[in-house]
Amino acid sequence: MIDLQLFKNIMAEARHNKDLLDSFSPNQFKSKELLVKHVKNIITPKEVVIFGGWYGSILIPSFKEAKRITVIDLDEKVISIAKNRLFNHYKNVDFICDDVFKWAPDSSRIKKTDLIINTSCEHMRPMKELNLNTKAYFAYQSNNMRGIEGHINCVDSNGHFEKQLPDNAKVLYRGYIEDSRGHRFTLIGKYE
Question: How far is CA 80 from its chain centroid?
Fold first, then answer.
């Protein structure tokens, strides 16, 4: 549930930034709601790391009870807006502007986190290329929406998506939803 202060911050920022509204689109909301629902059936995380977090619009409020949320994104403008104007009243969120593939493999946070989320796998190389040293749960999403700017790694099915996971990733949930532009695929599991 979005708190009143966050709602006010979103309204103020959206007047100047239409991209922010896309992060709350029905398609974004529907896919992230599916992920959050199934994650919370499996784990109540204390530490959450979000790869490619964009504005954190839906995921940060969904896991606001966590001790710490770390959001990593390459886009300095997005990180600045999320940190300084949207979630400035959230004291448990750290924002990092960096490349996930440079930051994550050696991060002590990855070793300690309970949950790694990436709802932007279509924007990145396969997750197996990260070589993460962790026993965390994961919740990953990708899609088959080729032709959208920045989509460099789309998949056609959950089976195709699973081939992009490391060998030590055990899938506990597979799902997909239809989007107005294609399908979004969800894999939730645990690194062993």
Answer: 17
Between the alpha carbon of residue 127 and those of residues 121, 161, 183, the distances in Å are: 8, 10, 19
pTM: 0.94
Question: What CATH number does residue 152 fall under?
Answer: 3.40.50.150
The number of domains in the chain is 1
Can you give the pLDDT at residue 21? 84
Contact 122, 151 (CB under 8 A): yes
Amino acid at 57: S
90: containing domain: 4-191
Residue (of 140, 7, 137) closest to 66 by Cα position = 137
**Distance (Å, whole) CA 133 – CA 69:** 18
Q: Take residue 48 and report the two structure tokens written for it.
A: 């959450």
Q: Which candidate, 181, 146, 142, 184, places its Cα nearest to that of 165?
A: 142
Q: What phi-psi label fits residue 150: left (phi over 0), alpha (psi between -120 and 50 degrees) or beta? A: left
Residue 62 burial (10 A CB sphere; 0-12, 13-18, 19+): buried
Q: Write the pLDDT tens digit of every residue in 97-129.
A: 999 999 999 999 999 999 999 999 999 999 999
Question: What are the Cα distances from residue 110, in Å, to 50, 100, 161, 175?
Answer: 10, 11, 22, 25
Query: Quick one: pLDDT at residue 2?
Result: 60
